[in-house]
């Protein structure tokens, strides 16, 4: 029996790519480096802030230099925590979350966004108490696609894998769920690069009004 739904954040519940793009370009601007495009920024999201910065640095300088990467990473975290202005909740997410809660389900969050920007975004969105357990990209020594963060949310909720469903938008989330052995629902309007049908998932949807109906289908 399903007792909780665990969500990814960026590209799944919220469209945060515009703010991530803006934060990236604030960093690059400050360093006198060229900007990245919106499509580049969106395609760099998914493996956490450190990997995002490495991809960004590689795109604008052609390589990664450890000291420069560390500096850019620190700069990026500063702006990232403050970048909310353009972040939007995807359509019908609030009703969907309220409905799950109303049905007595627990809610978890398993994101690769570092914990401080995650907490800042949740506060900005009025979701400070929305999730019973929150694990960010730097909460553990390993991040998704390692299954440990997802398993930590499950354990934190006091549940076992068959009692949860994980919902995410990216290759990273699909791999995490597959490696954990979790049931996985793919939101197809996020930041994935692979055709949805080629990705691991048990069900998929492009409208949150369809999620609950699909979630309880067997198979
Ligand atoms: O910050 C990232 O790289 C991705 O964040 P997500 O795990 O919430 O999609
Ligand atoms: Mg995501």
TrEMBL record:
Domain of life according to the entry: Bacteria
Annotated Pfam families: Hydrolase (PF00702)
UniProt keyword annotations, A-Z: Carbohydrate metabolism, Hydrolase, Magnesium, Metal-binding
Parts of the chain that traverse the membrane: none
Biological pathway: Organic acid metabolism; glycolate biosynthesis; glycolate from 2-phosphoglycolate: step 1/1
Catalytic activity, as annotated: 2-phosphoglycolate + H2O = glycolate + phosphate
Required co-factors: Mg(2+)
Enzyme nomenclature, EC number: 3.1.3.18
Gene Ontology molecular functions: phosphoglycolate phosphatase activity
UniProt family annotation: Belongs to the HAD-like hydrolase superfamily. CbbY/CbbZ/Gph/YieH family.
NCBIfam families linked: HAD-SF-IA-v1, HAD-SF-IA-v3, PGP_bact
Protein name: phosphoglycolate phosphatase
Annotated organism of origin: Roseinatronobacter alkalisoli
Gene: gph
């Amino acid at each position: 029996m399903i007792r909780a739904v665990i969500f990814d954040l960026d590209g799944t519940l919220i469209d945060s790519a515009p703010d991530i793009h803006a934060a990236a370009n604030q960093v690059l601007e400050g360093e006198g480096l060229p900007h990245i495009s919106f499509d580049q920024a969106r395609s760099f999201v998914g493996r956490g802030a450190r990997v995002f910065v490495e991809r960004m640095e590689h795109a604008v300088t052609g390589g990664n230099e450890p000291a420069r990467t560390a500096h850019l990473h620190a700069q990026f975290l500063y702006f990232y925590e403050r970048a909310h202005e353009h972040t939007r909740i995807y359509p019908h997410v609030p009703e969907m979350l309220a409905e799950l809660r109303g049905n007595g389900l627990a809610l978890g969050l398993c994101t690769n966004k570092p914990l401080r920007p995650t907490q800042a975004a949740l506060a900005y969105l009025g979701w400070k108490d929305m999730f019973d357990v929150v694990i960010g990209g730097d909460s553990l020594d390993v991040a998704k696609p390692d299954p440990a963060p997802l398993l930590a949310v499950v354990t934190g909720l006091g549940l076992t894998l068959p009692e949860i469903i994980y919902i995410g938008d990216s290759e990273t989330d699909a791999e995490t769920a597959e490696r954990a052995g979790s049931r996985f629902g793919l939101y197809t309007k996020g930041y994935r690069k692979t055709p949805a049908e080629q990705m691991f998932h048990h069900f998929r949807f492009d409208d949150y009004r369809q999620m609950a109906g699909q979630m309880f289908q067997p198979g």
